[in-house]
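Researcher: I'd like a candidate sequence for this fold, 414 residues long. If you have to choose between options at a position, lean toward the conservative one.
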């Protein structure tokens, strides 16, 4: 304490390592007399009592960092030498509780979260210990799959200016910065002891900010943050709980159809290049055309995914186009009319079908025994190829790594 100027400075001393931490300064000219002298101090709980030469008895609250006069000055207390045998337990207990809510947004109703919706993260930092915390800082990051909403950060009841630029705003707490209790000055790092956990607007530091869910986010957005303070002369970091927000992402499926003329029985061209719709595939009677459809999903899971393609009306489906003969230890595969390469795509001008990942699957033309079907009736009259992935459907992908596959069949010009 100072007896030359009207303020009280508080330090917490750690005898284990001979260090001290500045806790805070209190000014109260009505109580602290710059011309008075303090003869002794006593500790009871989180309260420190001091007697002065002029007979004052001051009470200094270490939890709230306030000072008041305890009764009127009395000459009987002049130069009293207070003391106590109590060694108070002055320990901060800092916790951080994080929550997330969806801000009203027309993109999706109710509590369902979809790309384009706005999420607001709220963090309550509380000191439930017995002494105020100095130098408290808070640091957070913008969750993967989201984008920060400019000028949406608040500390207690005050807005916090964004970092970065107007064109590229950055959430200000991406880099650790001071927080504090509202009554102590929100950004000065002083976190007072809070005895009312049911009320989060008195001595807690409350931070909030908003993000927008990306067009193609992960299926779940997770976020955790850190609170750092100085306790017993060393830095202490406390992590909040992790909040997870499931994101409902619609499938984003694209299809590319390719074809090639692989010739006739008397003039095979098995390495012919695949062409798309911008190129005319010339054929003559007896030629076989191979059709392949490349599917890509850059969005959420496509349950009950079924892909169909009609056999051209002037052609006949080849129900055993991909049959394989028997080999040593491997039986023959017959009635294989559908070639499926899960996990692989196919590009224009490619000269070979893609290999599946982890393996190519030769599906039967029959219905019901696997994912593929090839018929000679139905569709436009000459049959239909079907790839049915069932209720599990087509797995989710992203714009950088879409879920991909290729399915092929062959038809012959009569």
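Model: Candidate sequence:
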């Amino acid at each position: 304490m100072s007896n030359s100027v009207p303020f009280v400075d508080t330090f917490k001393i750690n005898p284990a390592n001979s260090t001290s931490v500045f806790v805070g300064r209190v000014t109260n000219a009505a109580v602290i007399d710059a011309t008075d002298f303090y003869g002794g101090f006593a500790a009871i709980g989180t309260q420190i009592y001091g007697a002065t030469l002029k007979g004052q008895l001051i009470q200094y609250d270490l939890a709230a960092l306030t000072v008041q006069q305890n009764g009127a000055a009395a000459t009987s207390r002049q130069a009293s030498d207070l003391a106590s045998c109590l060694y108070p337990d002055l320990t901060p207990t800092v916790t951080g509780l994080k929550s997330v809510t969806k801000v009203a947004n027309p993109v999706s109703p109710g509590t369902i979260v979809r790309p384009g919706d706005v999420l607001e993260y709220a963090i309550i930092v509380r000191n439930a210990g017995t002494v105020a915390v100095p130098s408290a800082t808070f640091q957070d990051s913008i969750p993967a799959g989201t984008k920060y909403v400019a000028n949406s950060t608040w500390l207690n009841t005050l807005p916090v200016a964004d970092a970065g630029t107007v064109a590229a705003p950055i959430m200000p707490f991406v880099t650790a910065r001071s927080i504090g209790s509202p009554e102590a000055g929100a950004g000065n790092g002083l976190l007072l002891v809070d005895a009312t956990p049911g009320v989060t607007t008195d001595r807690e530091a409350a931070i909030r900010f908003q993000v927008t869910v990306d067009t193609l986010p992960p299926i779940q957005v997770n976020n955790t943050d850190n609170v750092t303070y100085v306790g017993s002369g060393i830095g202490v970091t406390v992590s909040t709980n992790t909040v997870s927000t499931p994101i409902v992402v619609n499938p984003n499926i694209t299809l590319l159809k390719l074809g090639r003329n692989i010739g006739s029985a008397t003039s095979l061209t098995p390495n012919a290049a695949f062409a798309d719709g911008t190129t005319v595939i010339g054929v003559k009677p007896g030629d076989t055309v191979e059709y392949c459809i490349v599917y890509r999903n850059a969005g959420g899971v496509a349950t009950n995914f079924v892909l169909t393609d009609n056999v051209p009306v002037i052609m006949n489906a080849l129900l055993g186009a991909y049959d394989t003969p028997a080999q040593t230890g491997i039986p023959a595969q017959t009635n294989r009319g559908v070639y499926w390469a899960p996990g692989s795509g196919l590009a224009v001008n490619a000269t070979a079908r893609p290999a599946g990942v982890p393996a190519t699957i030769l599906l039967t033309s029959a219905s019901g025994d696997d994912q593929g079907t090839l018929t000679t009736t139905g569709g436009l009259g000459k049959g239909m190829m079907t790839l049915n992935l069932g209720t599990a459907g087509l797995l989710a992908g992203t714009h950088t790594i879409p879920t991909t596959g290729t399915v092929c069949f062959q038809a012959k010009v009569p």
